[in-house]
Write a structure and sequence with these properties.
Blueprint: H1 8-21, H2 26-38, H3 43-56, H4 61-73, H5 77-89, H6 97-120, H7 124-143, H8 149-168, H9 172-184, H10 190-209, H11 213-225, H12 229-234, H13 239-252, E1 258-266, E2 271-276, E3 281-285, E4 303-314, E5 317-330
Antiparallel strand pairs: 1-2, 1-4, 2-3, 4-5
Helix pairs in contact: 1-2, 2-3, 3-4, 4-5, 4-6, 5-6, 6-7, 6-8, 7-8, 8-9, 8-10, 9-10, 10-11, 10-13
């Protein structure tokens, strides 16, 4: 109760007294590690208490699961996988559907975290392998009739990670296919809705960058119509997601676009200079085109375009940039 009231010092003092009364009670160290330390973000301290519980009961499935989760939080993914796998295979009388669901999602989350770590280390193949293992864990659980929101949420998260990996490795078709699978999935939990919203925004962003405004707007329309997405977008924890959506919406807006012509295309440095009707000039790069172009060369000179103006302050001077450049028609030149 002290812990739930966020009275951490008082809670720890009571647990210390409890441990003096019975130092061999596994439940004390499980509660100490989870309800007090893990709940308050003290993962190293939680790990130390779970370690004591593990020494007392090395075959207890609940202890194995809690200790495995703690290992995963601290980045010991291989050790976490061994503990969680042992917990899942436990043939104790405690074994239940609920325990299997918790262990399956813990294994899946560990594979996802492991994949994220490998991706940060530029090991794209290893990351994909871990995301696939996370997906496999969840699908196997669903096939055994363990249809629980936690499993669907974990499955969707792993698929989303895999789609992002495919975008990074230029496998856009595969990434889009996975994102479409996600938005067609049905589950009403908060986490699943969050991942589904992320997939919709990713699809809107993808088609926007490809210059397919119609398709981009169709996904934005789905987001606007879905009531359960509104509280997520209002939540300050997901501000980046909201900002990304607003950016796509404002950029895809056909209004407030400027007409101009590409006057200079510098192939050596990969930039273009666009002049609008008032003879004001703006600079843009290959990635600023919709869709983006691979190279900048003289063949771009003389093309009519529309674009969005952007002004930034750089070294005390205003720099005028052209964003979301869309080629309309070529001039006679």
């Amino acid at each position: 109760m002290e812990s739930y009231e966020n009275h951490l010092e008082e809670a720890i003092e009571l647990m210390q007294k409890a441990a003096k009364i019975d130092a061999n009670d596994t439940q004390i160290y499980l509660l100490w590690g989870g309800n007090i330390y893990r709940k308050n973000g003290k993962f190293n301290d939680a790990h130390s208490k779970y370690e004591i519980a593990y020494k007392l009961a090395p075959n207890d499935p609940i202890v194995l699961n809690a200790f495995g989760q703690a290992k995963s939080r601290l980045g010991f993914y291989k050790e976490a996988n061994e503990l969680l796998t042992k917990s899942k295979k436990s043939d104790s009388s405690f074994n239940s559907t609920k325990h299997n669901i918790i262990t399956t999602t813990s294994l899946s989350e560990n594979f996802i975290n492991w994949g994220d770590f490998l991706l940060r280390d530029k090991n794209q193949f290893g990351a994909k392998e871990k995301y696939d293992l996370a997906i496999s864990e969840c699908i196997n659980a669903i096939n055994t009739d363990a249809k629980d929101s936690k499993i669907y949420a974990s499955l969707t998260k792993a698929k989303l990670k895999k789609a992002h990996l495919f975008f990074k490795t230029n496998k856009d078709v595969s990434a889009v296919r996975i994102l479409k699978q996600i938005i067609e999935s049905r589950d009403n939990s908060f986490k699943h809705s969050l991942y589904k919203l992320s997939a919709l925004i990713d699809l809107a962003d993808y088609y926007f960058k490809k210059g397919n405004i119609k398709s981009s707007n169709s996904y934005i329309s789905i987001i606007k119509k879905e009531i359960k997405f509104k509280p997520i977008l209002r939540n300050s924890k997901f501000q980046k997601l909201n900002d990304k959506l607003r950016f796509i919406q404002s950029s895809a807006d056909s209004e407030n676009r400027t007409e101009g012509m590409i006057k200079i295309a510098n192939s050596n440095y990969g930039y273009v200079i666009i002049e609008d009707k008032s003879e004001e000039t703006f600079i843009g790069g290959a990635s600023d085109f919709m869709p983006s172009i691979s190279i900048v060369d003289s063949s771009l000179e003389g093309l009519n375009v529309t674009f969005k103006k952007k002004e930034i302050m750089k070294k005390g001077e205003i720099k005028k940039e052209a964003k979301f450049i869309k080629i309309t028609v070529a001039t006679k030149n």
